[in-house]
Every structure is written in C-alpha cells, then in structure tokens.
Design brief:
The chain is α/β, with parallel strands linked by helices. The chain has two domains: about 5-45 and about 355-365 and about 390-420, Urease, subunit C, domain 1; about 50-340, Metal-dependent hydrolases (TIM Barrel). About 30% of the residues lie in helices and about 25% in strands. It has helices spanning about 70-80, 95-110, 125-130, 155-165, 190-195, 195-210, 225-230, 240-245, 265-275, 295, 310-320, 330-340, 420; strands at about 5-10, 15-25, 25-30, 40-50, 50-55, 80-85, 115-120, 135-140, 170-175, 215-220, 235-240, 285, 360, 365-370, 385-390, 395, 400-405, 405. The strands form three sheets. It has an eight-stranded mixed beta sheet. An eight-stranded parallel beta sheet has the order 5-6-7-8-9-10-11-12. The protein has a two-stranded antiparallel sheet with strand order 14-15. β5 (about 50-55), α1 (about 70-80) and β6 form a beta-alpha-beta unit. The structure holds N-carbamoyl-L-aspartate and zinc ion (3 copies).
C-alpha cells in the first residue's frame, strides 16, 4: 500500500483496531495488519470518516473581505471537514457555466479540502449544462445575503421540472418572502418577529407542491412547527445547523447571532434537539456564513445575517457525543454518510472504494473554543467559550493536511463532482 493509517477505526458502524490501506487517494483495503510505504500509527485514537459540510459560504469570488477559499477551507480542515459544498450567493452569483468554472478555478488553486459547487436557481438558467458540473441547485425563497431571491415558484416552473429530470438535489432556503414582516429591527426578538415560524412552514409547503418530482432538500430547518411537514415527506430530506440546536433568541450576542432563518424560541430549539435524538434530520451542516466584525457592528437593521461555523461543526458534535446526547453512528450518519450519499460523492465512509478522507480524534481532548485559535477570516465566533473536541489529524485522499490543529502539507483540494465523473 502507498499509505497505511492505523487506529481504532469506525468501519461498518462499529470501532475496530485495524489498518486502512490507501492507493491513489482511495481506500484500497481494510485489514488487521497492512504494510505501507508510509504508515501513520494513531494507536488507540479513533479514526472517523472526514465530515462533509454540505452548506458553506466561502464568499469567493466577490466578498473576499469576509472569507476566501484559502481561509474558509483552512477553517473547515482544522475542524475535520474534508469536503465543503459551497453555496451560489457569491459575486457574481453562480448561475452560469462560466461563473461555476471561474469559481472552480479559484477553489482548485486555494482549497485545502475537496469541494462541490451549488448552482443558483433563477429564471432562465441552463439547467442541463449546470447539472453536469454542479453538486446541486439552490433556491432562495426568502431574502438573505446575495441576489438570488425567487419569492414565488411560478417563474421557475420550467427550470424546476428540468432539475427533476436531472435527478440533482434541489436545496432550498425555505422562508416565504411574501409572509415576512418588514418592521424595523432592533434586536434578535425583532428579527424573529419579522420572520415568524409560519414563514418557514409556508415555504416548505409551497415548494413541496411546486417541486413534487424533485429531490428536495430543506436547508437549516429552524421551527418546531416544520417538523410534522418533514416527518412523512417521502423523498424530501432536511438539514439542521448547530446554531439552531444550541442557540436561541435569548442569546446576548446581538447582531453576531442575527441569522436567517432566525434563532427562535427555546421550545423550538428543544423541539429540534429532541427530533434529532429521535432520528430526524438527514444532515447536520454549518451554514458557515461569515461577515466581517465591522459589518456586524452596524445597527441591527443593517447588519448582515449569518455566522461562521464550519470549524466548530465537528468539535461541538463530538463534545455532544461525549456528553451522550448522541451516539457516534448518529453523528457519522448526519455529517458523513448521508451527505455523501445524497450528493452522490464517493466520500463519507471508511470502506473500500471510498476516498481516504479521515479524521483522527482523541475524545479526552476537550477544549474551550477560542476565537484566536480559529481560522476563518472573519475573526469571531458565536461559540466562544463553549466546549469542543478538535481532530488531532485530518487527511484528504490520503494526504495529511492538518496536524495538531494546524495546516501541514499542500493544498490538495479539488472538485469532488467533476473529478469523480472525469
Ligand atoms: C447566509 C449568508 O450570509 O450567505 N446567511 C444566513 O443568515 N444564513 C445566507 C443563507 O444561508 O441564508
Ligand atoms: Zn439560507
Ligand atoms: Zn446558507
Ligand atoms: Zn492556526
């Protein structure tokens, strides 16, 4: 074998001391003992599949004062994310083959981790061309960062049926713009009043009716009242974020915690938490949406919505597992296996034929999250002071990219969608 990783590996739903043999970046063999040109022995440390953060905004091109592919992917990598799926609300927005390829060129030159690129859904896009190179499509039904708002499904009926025919995922920001209040906002309560729970429920209903044949994926579910709609929803999948599970409108963080959909009541948060425990939500993703601290210091009404989170996604959840709110299988399913399966990537499992994307974890190494140790360009975090477990080492396709919380090796990231079909 070219590379061998030895440790307490999570294989087929349980841990076993074994060796992972890697050839050409792919897992070629799993056995008790293997010989390799390079051997990484992690002793009793646990080895998990690298996480796939299926919802990030790396802001590049166009908003690189907030983040870029270099800093965003470094933050992801240091948090155990080995593949990041980037949203199309950049500048320009990713709605043409040209803008998609431009973004791929930028990402390929700067990214530490593998990636996939979403195409934005708006009237007139070339669905068939974009479907060949995008990881999925993204629809914004409510206003948020960027210029991709499509408040009603009527002008995109043709595009929706074309997307259905491609079998690509249609990911949806589900807030009904027509039900949003537009009062001036002074605090998180005001932001919540303007975007009530019914906004989300209504948007989910509308898109379900308008896109019956699509593989719909509802992003960042935030309201307890949305859960019944997702329970018997056939092929509709859903995502929840750490911020909607861990924070609510009582947060004292002000504009830093202004996010879309908004942080809601404690009962919503607890409802999501309980639903997760009971097996709901296919995916947990960060919705990493950095803005500069200066932008966030504007008056509440003008401050942009969104918070960073890709680097803290895995650490918060590992701590969660340690505190027995979730087991490893529930975590690996939502962070690795399901996103890999849903988006058709050969990633997210320690299994022969899969990319050798791995993270090595010591469950005894809980730390307090400190902004000065994080790597996003934005330089702040809503999770400062909370407990987390950061991976000791991270590998992308057999290359060690992070050791002891810092970058090592080269920036090997590539587009997981296009390289897979090439
Ligand atoms: C995101 C952003 O800033 O790009 N903001 C947010 O509040 N979540 C956009 C989005 O996902 O809605
Ligand atoms: Zn969104
Ligand atoms: Zn987002
Ligand atoms: Zn550092």
């Amino acid at each position: 074998m070219e590379v061998v990783v030895e440790g307490n590996c999570y294989v087929s739903g349980r841990f076993e001391r074994c060796c992972i043999g890697i050839e050409n970046g792919r897992i070629a063999k799993i056995a008790k003992m293997l010989e390799g040109d390079r051997v990484f022995s992690f002793g009793n440390r646990i080895v998990l599949p690298g996480a796939i953060d299926s919802h990030v905004h790396f802001r590049d091109p166009g908003m690189t004062q907030k983040e870029d592919w270099g800093t965003g992917s470094l933050a992801a990598a240091c948090g155990g994310v080995t593949c990041a799926l980037d949203m199309p609300n950049t500048r320009p927005s990713t709605t043409t083959l040209t803008s998609l390829r431009d973004k791929r060129r930028i990402a390929s030159s700067k990214s530490l981790v593998d990636f996939g690129l979403f195409a934005g859904l708006k009237p007139g896009i070339d669905v068939r061309a974009l479907a060949k190179e995008a990881v999925g499509f993204k629809l914004y039904m409510g206003s948020t960062t960027g210029d991709l708002l499509v408040p009603q499904p009527s002008p995109i009926r043709a595009e929706i049926s074309e997307i259905a025919a491609t079998r690509k995922v249609l990911a949806v920001h589900a807030e009904d713009e027509t039900m949003r209040n537009k009062e001036s906002e002074r605090d998180l309560e005001g932001h919540l009043r303007n975007r009530p729970n019914e906004c989300e429920v209504s948007a989910i209903r509308k898109i379900r009716d308008a896109a019956k044949d699509c593989r719909l994926h509802i992003c960042h579910v935030s309201a307890k009242s949305s859960l019944p709609l997702l329970a018997n929803a056939g092929t509709v999948t859903s995502e929840v974020t750490p911020h909607h599970l861990l924070l609510d409108v009582s947060s004292r963080l002000g504009t830093l915690a202004k996010v879309n959909p908004p942080l809601r009541r404690r009962e919503d948060r607890q409802g999501l938490f309980q639903a997760l425990k009971n097996g709901s939500f296919d995916i947990i993703a960060s919705d990493h949406a950095p803005h500069t601290i200066d932008e966030k210091h504007e008056d509440f009404d003008y401050a942009p919505s969104g918070m960073p989170g890709t680097e803290t996604l895995v650490p918060l959840l590992l701590q969660h597992v340690k505190e027995k709110h979730m087991d490893f299988s529930g975590m690996v399913r939502r962070l690795c296996e399901n996103p890999g399966d849903l988006f058709g990537l050969r990633k997210g499992r320690i299994q022969v034929g899969y990319d050798a994307d791995l993270m090595v974890v010591d469950m005894d190494s809980t730390v307090r999250i400190r902004v000065d140790k994080l790597h996003s360009k934005c330089g702040w975090s809503a999770y400062e002071g909370m407990l987390g477990i950061f991976p000791r080492a991270v590998l992308v396709r057999g290359n060690v990219i992070v050791e002891s919380g810092e970058q090592v090796g080269e920036r090997v990231g590539r587009d997981a969608v296009v390289s897979a079909s090439a």
